Amino acid sequence: MRKNPAATLMVYCPTCGNSVNEYNWTLETGAIYSLKGEDSPTFIKILLECSEGKLDQWINFKVGCPRCHEKIRVKLIPIPDKETLMAYVDEVGEEYVNERF
Fold first, then answer.
1. In terms of Cα–Cα distance, which of 55, 47, 41, 46 is closest to 83?
2. Contact 92, 7 (CB under 8 A)
3. For residues 71 and 51, what is the distance between their CA atoms, to the nearest angstrom?
4. Cα separations in angstroms, 44 against 5, 6, 48
5. Pairing outcome for strands 62-64 and 19-21
6. How far, in Å, CA of 21 to CA of 16, rounded?
7. What is the pLDDT of residue 55?
8. Can you give the residue ranges of every domain in the chain?
């Protein structure tokens, strides 16, 4: 699924103060919302759309922090800059970005 399984994009959780890898955020969020493994987008997909000015559609969506297990609104999470996001996408591949969990 991910081109480079060792790829990391650390994202800060404002609730617990830890930075956690994007993939773990995706798995935690999928575990919260997924029915039949297809209901939750990857966290990188959400971050990319927010960085492209589509924050309104995600502003109240909650993602799960894999460290503290709290549900946090996307609007409260600092979005990494576009260059950092795109470098991560290059590592993990578009197929992973568009996957549903």
1. 47
2. yes
3. 21
4. 14, 15, 6
5. unpaired
6. 14
7. 87
8. 17-97
